[in-house]
Amino acid sequence: MNFRTILTIYLGIFWLCSATAVQAQNISTSAKYALITDFDSGLVILDKNADAPMKPASMAKIMTIYIAFGRIAEGSLSLDDSFVISEKAWKMGGSRSFLNAGAQYSLSELLHGIIIQSGNDAAVALAEGISGSEENFANEMNVVAARLGMKNTIFKNSTGWPHPEITTTARDLNILATALIRDFPVSEYPQLYPIFAKITYTLNEIKQGNRNPLLYGKNADRNGADGLKTGYTEESGYGLTASALRNGQRVVMVLNGMSSKSERANESRRLMDFVFREYRKYEFFDAGETIDEANIWLGEQAKLPLILGEPLHRVMSRVDRAKTSFQVTWQDPVPAPITKGQQVGVLSLTRDDKVVETIPLLAGNSVSELGLLDRVGAALKYIILGASNTSAGSTSGS
C-alpha cells in the first residue's frame, strides 16, 4: 500500500475580466495621511503615511467619548448624571455647544454636544466632571491609548485643541475608532454609538448639524455611514475618522491633512464607495462544512469527511479573488483510528502560485480501527485486488 498518496484538489478558481477592478496598492488619495481597514478582519485596504505623526484636531474627542462610554458601561456614570460647567469650559473657543457657565447639563447632553456639535466646551466640562481637571483627564486618555495599542499618540487635552506635544497617527486613530465600535456594540448599548449618526442636535435652543459629510447627500440613507468624527485646525488640515456598514461589512476610515471641507467630503465619499464596490467578504467555507472526503485505511468506515474548525471567510478585492485558489492536501488513505477534530491535512490559500495562508484540515468524525481479523482480511483484499477509491482528482468552480 502507498501510504504517501497525496490528493490535491483545486477549489473555487474563477477569473474576473473586469477593466475597472483595481488592487489596493494602486488606490490613490489626496489626503496626506490615510488608513482604511475592514472592521472584522483588520485587513488594511489603503495605507498612506499611516504611521507618520500628525495632529488629530477634534478627532481627539473620540478618546474623550470612549472614556465616557466606558464609565457608562461599567456603571459608574449614567446618561442622566449632571455636570456643572466651569469658567474654563465656558470660555473655550472654536466649535462650541454654547453651554452656560455655572449651569448643569446631563451627560447625555454633553455627549450629544461633543459628538454632533464638536463642542469644545462640552468636552472640557465632561473631562473635568470625570477626572476633576482636564489635565488629569488627559493623563487618563494617554493610559487608555497605551492599553489600546496606540503607540504613537500623546494627548494633552480633551478636545484636540492645538498644543505642541499633541500627536497621533492615522493608524492610532483607526485603532481607537475600531475599539469604540467593538467595545460598545449597539446590541448592548443602543443609547451610545447611534448618537454619532444623528444629523442635528439642539442645545440651549441652538440647533447645529453633524459635521460628518458622509451622513449627507442623496444616497445618505444607503451608504451606511454611522460615525465618527471630523477634525480641523490650521496645522492639521481637514480630517475625518469615519465608519460605514453595508450588507454586513463594516469599514473604518481615517483621512487627514486635506485642504478644505469640500475636499474632505468628496474624498471620503469617493473612497468609501470604492472600498465597498471593490472589496467584499467572501464566505468560502463555514465551520464544519465538508470540504472533501478521504479514504480510510483499516477503519470501520470507508470514507472520512474533511472539515475546517473555523469558517473560512475572507475580505478581498475583486482582483485578489480572481487570483485566489485553494489546495486541499492530505495523506491518503488516512489510517484508523481517527479522532474527530484531529488534523489530517491542510488547506492552503494560494495567490499568484504562492501560499499566503494555511489552515488545518480536520477529521469530521471519529473512526474506530477494525478488529484484528477484519484488518487481516482488508490487508489480503488490498494485496489481491488493490486499493479501491484511491485516486487523485481535481475540481473547479465559483
Short description:
With 398 residues, this protein is α+β, with helices and mostly antiparallel strands.
Q: Enumerate how many helices there are, as a single number.
A: 9
Judging by the overall fold, what is the CATH architecture of the largest domain? 3-Layer(aba) Sandwich
C-alpha end-to-end distance: 35 Å
Cα-atom Rg, whole angstroms? 28 Å
Q: What is the count of structural domains?
A: 2
* Secondary structural class: alpha+beta
Shape: elongated
- Range of strand content: 25-35%
The CATH C-level name of the largest domain is Alpha Beta
What's the helical proportion of residues?
A: 25-40%
Count of β-strands = 18
> What would the CATH topology of the largest domain be?
Beta-lactamase
Spatial strand order of the main sheet: 1-15-17-18-13-12-16
Largest sheet: 7 strands, mixed
**CATH superfamily name of the largest domain?**
DD-peptidase/beta-lactamase superfamily
Mean pLDDT: 89
Q: N-to-C SSE series? A: EEEHEHEHHHHEEEEEHEEEEHEEEEH
Enumerate the spans where pLDDT stays under 50 for 5 or more consecutive residues. Answer: 1-24, 388-398
Element layout with pairings:
Elements: E1 5-11, E2 33-38, E3 44-48, H1 61-74, E4 82-84, H2 87-90, E5 104-106, H3 107-115, H4 120-131, H5 134-148, H6 170-183, E6 200-203, E7 206-209, E8 225-233, E9 237-246, E10 249-258, H7 261-278, E11 279-285, E12 290-297, E13 303-307, E14 312-317, H8 318-322, E15 324-332, E16 334-335, E17 343-351, E18 354-363, H9 372-385
Helix pairs in contact: 1-6, 3-4, 4-5
